[in-house]
Amino acid sequence: MNPTTPDVLPPPSDDAWLSDLTDDGPAGQQALGHLHQLLLRAARHQVWRLRNLLPGAGAGELEDLAQQAADDALVAVLRQLGTFEGRSRFSTWAYKFGVLHAGVAVRRQAWRHREVPLPDTIALVDSSPGPEMHSEGAQLARAVRAAIASELTPHQRRVVLALLVEEVPIDVLADRMGSTRNALYKTLHDARRRMRAALTDSGHLENRTHRSTP
Questions:
Q1: Sequence-separated (6 or more) residues with CB below 8 Å from residue 23
Q2: Across all residues in the chain, what is the average pLDDT?
Q3: 0.90 cut: is pTM over it?
Q4: In this model, does residue 38 exceed pLDDT 90?
Q5: Cα atoms in the 13 Å half-sphere on the side-chain side of 210
Q6: Which has the closest alpha carbon to 153: 124, 186, 180, 125?
Q7: So what's the pLDDT on residue 208?
């Protein structure tokens, strides 16, 4: 049986998936083929949906990305089998891995030849109010700029500015910085907490702990 045949149907139940995927015999090989085909469908769908990020990419390049994403997703699914809790169908749970890894593959390809800016200072917009800017907005912009400059560590500043200002995809930034998505999410979370505290102290945000409850 050809495991890449589109009409091949997956095992009928979650128990069958889990049992077969941990089988070292023919049943396991067949289940791997079913799973790879499922992930390839997910990856192709996502690559096609994000194709505008890769202007000029031909069908062959897009298919290569989908295949690469499906391969990476297969490894990830097998590594995470023990975390499957049955809150959704196994096929639905696994499909998301294909979508995720396809998105990562497309973004990495899109940024392959682009420099990733890691600024240490913020240069958002001119903080002086123009005709279209209200004074409150100008004051908040200055407060945000000051909080980023004074309250964040240099590492937090680079991560915040790269992710939120330069809009570098987090997986691309993780690659370029030799870090991980989880580590960057933690850095971003800590930076936002510091900035919120600073903006609360300066009166630009409400202190949520002081709000009354009904």
A1: 31
A2: 81
A3: no
A4: yes
A5: 5
A6: 186
A7: 62
